[in-house]
Write a structure and sequence with these properties.
The protein is an all-alpha fold and about 270 residues long. It contains 12 helices and no strands. It starts with 7 loop residues before the first helix and ends with a helix.
C-alpha cells in the first residue's frame, strides 16, 4: 500500500476520504440526533436528478447534484415543519421523481456518458483537484457554521420547543441543518455512492453516540471513526481490487458488529 501513495489518484482519494469523513462525522451527528436519516436518504436519491441534469447540460456533476440536493432540502424542511403527517409520502415522491429525472436526462444525453455506476456506488479513485477544492470549501464552511452557531444548533437538535422559548429561529436553523446535510450527502456520493451514503452518515455516528456525552464530542469521535473506516476501506480495496465504496461500508459494518459484541459482553 505504501508504494501506491506515489500515485496522484491514490493521494487524491486519501485526501478526499478524510475530508468527506470529517464532514460526514459532523453532519451525520446532526442527522442522527435530529432523526433525519430517512430525510437524508430522500435527499441523496433526489440528487440523482441533478447528476442527470449535469450530464445532460455538460456542467460539473457536483454543481447539478448540489442544486437538486439543496432544493430538495428546502422542500423537505418546509414539509417537515408544516405537514409532519405527510413527510413519508412527500419524501417517497421526491425520492422516486429525482431518480426518474436522472435516468431520463441521462437517456436523453447523446455520446459518451461516463461511468454512471460510480454515482450509485462511489468512485473515490476518480476524485479530481476541483472535487477536492469543493470538499475543502464545504468542510471549512461546515466547521465555521457549526462552531459559530453551536448553541443554537444544539438547542434546535434536541428540543425545538425549548429553542422557540429561547427566541431561536427554529425554522432557519432546522433548514440550515438540512441544507448542510444535503451538501454533505453530495460529496459523500463521490466516495461511496448514493446507494451507500446513509451507511457512511450513520454507522460511525452510532458508535460515537454510545461513547459520547455531548454533541460536540460525538462529532469529533464520529469524524475520527469515519476517517479510520475510510482509510481501512481504501487499503482493503487496493489489496483485493474491489470497489472502494463497498469496502468502506463493509469495514464500517464489521467494526460496528465488533463494537456491539463488545458492548453486549461488557454489560452482560
Amino acid at each position: 500500500m505504501i508504494e501506491a501513495l506515489s500515485y496522484e489518484f491514490i493521494q487524491n482519494a486519501l485526501i478526499a476520504g478524510i475530508l468527506v469523513s470529517i464532514a460526514s462525522g459532523i453532519i451525520g451527528s446532526l442527522i442522527v440526533v435530529n432523526r433525519m436519516v430517512f430525510l437524508a436518504g430522500g435527499i441523496a436519491h433526489t440528487s440523482y436528478g441533478g447528476i442527470g441534469l449535469a450530464i445532460f447540460l455538460g456542467f460539473p456533476i457536483f454543481l447539478g447534484a448540489s442544486l437538486f440536493a439543496v432544493i430538495s432540502a428546502l422542500i423537505i424542511a418546509s414539509i417537515t415543519l408544516n405537514h409532519r403527517d405527510r413527510v413519508d409520502t412527500f419524501i417517497g415522491l421526491m425520492w422516486a421523481v429525482g431518480m426518474a429525472l436522472g435516468v431520463v436526462f441521462i437517456d436523453l444525453t447523446s455520446g459518451y456518458k461516463g461511468d454512471l455506476m460510480s454515482y450509485l456506488f462511489g468512485s473515490i479513485l476518480s476524485v479530481s483537484h476541483s472535487d477536492l477544492y469543493y470538499m475543502i470549501i464545504l468542510l471549512i464552511s461546515t466547521i465555521l457554521i457549526v462552531t459559530l452557531r453551536y448553541r443554537e444548533i444544539l438547542a434546535v437538535s434536541y428540543d425545538m420547543e425549548y429553542a422557540k422559548l429561547r427566541g431561536i429561529n427554529v425554522r432557519f436553523y432546522y433548514t440550515l441543518i438540512l441544507v448542510l446535510s444535503a451538501l454533505s450527502v453530495v460529496v459523500a456520493i463521490k466516495v461511496v455512492g448514493l446507494i451507500l451514503v446513509i451507511a457512511l452518515l450513520t454507522i460511525p455516528i452510532y458508535i460515537a453516540e454510545k461513547l459520547s456525552n455531548t454533541l460536540y464530542m460525538m462529532m469529533i469521535l464520529s469524524s475520527i471513526f469515519s476517517s479510520i473506516f475510510t482509510i481501512l476501506g481504501l487499503i482493503v480495496s487496493y489489496i483485493y481490487n474491489i470497489s472502494s465504496g463497498a469496502s468502506i461500508i463493509l469495514i464500517s459494518a464489521f467494526c460496528l458488529s465488533i463494537f456491539l459484541i463488545y458492548q453486549k459482553l461488557k454489560f452482560d
